[in-house]
Structures are given as structure tokens and as C-alpha cells.
Amino acid sequence: MRPDPLGYLANELQTLRDQSLYRPLRVLDGAQGARASVDHRSVVNLSSNNYLGLTTHPVLLERAQQALRDFGVGTGSVRTIAGTMEIHMALERRLAAFKQTEAAVVFQSGFTANAGTVSSILTRDDAIISDELNHASIIDGARLSRATIKVFPHRDAGAARRILESLPKTQRRLLITDGVFSMDGDLGALPELCALADEFGCIMMVDDAHASGVFGRDGRGTVDHFNLHGRVDVQVGTLSKAIGALGGYVAGSRALIEFLHHRARPFLFSTSHPPSVAATCLAALDVLEGEPGLIARLWDNARFFKAGLQALGFNTGVSESPITPVIVGEAATAMALSDGLFARGVFAQGIGAPTVPPGKARVRTIVTATHTRDDLQYALDMFAAVGAALGIR
Question: Which residues form the catalytic set?
């Protein structure tokens, strides 16, 4: 019998099990919502990025269905050959206006938007100055660019300054941060980093995936939240979280966007979005600008739930957003808390290394605009019960 050349992977999986880091996939039995059926169990869903509940919003559903009838289920080509439809162009014009930039381009995911942009606009002669907790897509894009990578401690603008001072003034430099950090829920040091970019002549870039639809006027993101329009050269956003659909986008100057058309490999070599997805995203922007109460409800729920966890004695870290981690330390404890909650009808995933540093495992929670107070109070009661049983509080 032929030896299995991938047999070593079974050993790697066993190591994950031994470290309490192996997690089977949870399976949704129906629509993504504040309450959902997961693995045939009705749960309060605290694990979704569906911040505003738009995955099932009637306006988005109707627009998607109409686009299916009008344009079919797919485009059949990449954007640069025969896959650019007018609805893609309309979405990009709308996104540019929304972000107050000259132009925008849509990618197949937020991951490819980050990785494709960083890897295409830089070369091995350039330098990247990156927050240590930036998203994996930024890290992968930096590696693919072959530029020199310099990492500064989380949110430490002083350390970023020292790195910039050590680099040649003639070197092209990209300064990059997440707008909202996905595991801790805190904001990037964007005002301070923009000041450094101005002083040192850097390209300034922000990944606003978890700020899109959450921060700023009508969900325009952290650039709007901090009133930094015109000072961030590359804005990355997502269409997969608060927008409720799929994809990512880059907003910036027209020269940047046209260059990405010609050099960003994910854009060049991936089939374009189905027209129904583009229609859904356009509808979501209508909802963001026409129903401001959704974002207000999201923040009301976030404040209520965060305060409830803190009153129970849980460590919620430095969260400033609807992402609220419950930091417990060891991976085994985090997974036990997650499993105990699930058994009681609350879905909140446990997260350990390498997604977060060793010793800082957690259960990450995200509330949405569509959770009711009864949903959130029930979840708090279950956190209290399971936490007490595990000796966490």
C-alpha cells in the first residue's frame, strides 16, 4: 500500500486536540440571525459579524431576487475580460461617494482586498510599518510584497515613530493599522498614525472591516469617526460583516484604484461578484443611510451587554466596540466556557492561539442590532451560571 504523504497532518490535528485548540465546525441550520439554529439547537447567537441584521433585511432580499431575475446567478468571467457589469460599476461609485474618496474597487473578500492591495502597491525595496495585532490578511499581503516588514507594539505610535526614524527618508513606507481589532474590539491609533504619516511622508492605510457599518456617520468607518478624511490614502472595508453580504473593497485615489485594476492579483484572476451580491450591497448602503436607528440599536445593545459582563466580574479587556471578549487565559478554559454556554443555548466561540496570544484565550462575543434585551439578558445569565461552575468569575 502506498504510504500516505499527508499522514503527518493527523499528528498535527492530535496536537491541536491535546492543546484544547481543535474545534469542529458549527453548522447553521437556517438563516444567520440574532437567534439561530446551530447544530440543530436554538441559540442566542453571539458569534456572528452580522452587526445590523442585514443578512435577512427585506430590502436586501428583494433587491437580490430582482437582480437574479434580471442578470442571472453569475458573471462568468473576471472583471478585466467580460465580468464587469454596470451594477459592479454602480456599487463602486456608490462606495467611493460613501467613503468620500475619488474611486473604489470591489474585491471578492476583505482578505483579498487587504492582501491584494498591500502585495501589489509595494516592492522588495519598500518598507511596511504594521501594528502587531493587524489582521492575517495584512500580514500575508506584507509577506507577498517582499517589502521589509517592521512591526510595532499594539497601538504604540511612539514605537512606530522610532521605526520610521530608523528608515531611510528616501524609502517608500506604508504605515498600516486595523481600524477596529477583531479579537479585542479596541480601536487602532489612527489619529496618531496619521500624524506620523503626514510627518514622514508615508502611505497611510487602514483596514476598516469591523468598523464598516458600525463607526462613523451612517457606518462610514473610523476615518469618518476620527474626522481624518483626506489623510488616509488606502481605506479597506468589507461587504461581509455589517453590510450583510460578501466581499471587500478598497477606496482611495483614482490612480490607486486604476493601478489595482492592473496589478492586484485577486482582482485580475478571480471571477467577479454575482450581480445579486452587488445589488445586495447597494441596498445595504441605502439602508445604512436611510435607517440610522439600526446603528443606534447596535450601540445600545453593545453597551448593555458589555456593562452586564463587567458587572458579573468578567475580564472584557480594552473593548471599545460591539466586539467584547471574555478573556479567561488558558485555551481549555475558554473552550469549556464556550461549550458550557452552547449546551445552555448561547453560541459564543472560544478562541485560542495562534489567533490570540498563548495565555490570552477567550470567548469572543458580538452583539447585533437585532438582539432583544431578553436575548442579551438570557446570555448574561448563562455566562453567570457557566462562569461560576468553572470558577472563572
Answer: 182, 210, 241
pTM for the model: 0.95
Verify that 138 and 204 share a domain, yes or no.
yes
Q: For residue 29, how many other CB atoms are within 10 A of its CB?
A: 11
CB atoms within 10 A of CB 154: 18
The enclosing domain of 202 has a CATH number of 3.40.640.10
Measured CA to CA, the distance from residue 76 to residue 82 in angstroms comes to 8
Are 266 and 326 part of one and the same domain?
no
Task: Say which amino acid occupies 116.
Answer: G
Enumerate long-range contacts of 161-165, CB under 8 Å, 24 or more apart: 161/196, 163/129, 164/129, 164/196, 164/200, 164/202
Q: Please list, in sequence order, all residues whose beta carbon lies within 8 angstroms of the beta carbon of residue 80, skipping any fewer than 6 positions away.
A: 261, 267, 268
pLDDT value at position 2?
87
**Sign of the alpha-carbon torsion through 260, 261, 262, 264:** positive
- Residue 283, domain member (yes or no): yes
The pLDDT assigned to 23 comes to 87
Domain's final residue, options 260, 290, 320: 290
Judge if the upstream peptide bond of residue 24 is cis by omega within 30 degrees of 0: no
The whole-number pLDDT of residue 20 equals: 85
- With H, G, I as helix, E, B as strand and everything else as coil, classify residue 334: helix
Residue ranges making up the domain that contains 260: 58-290
**Rounded distance between C-alpha atoms, residue 33 and residue 51, angstroms:** 10
Q: What is the CA radius of gyration of the chain?
A: 21
Using 50 as the pLDDT threshold, list the residues of the chain that sit under it.
Answer: none
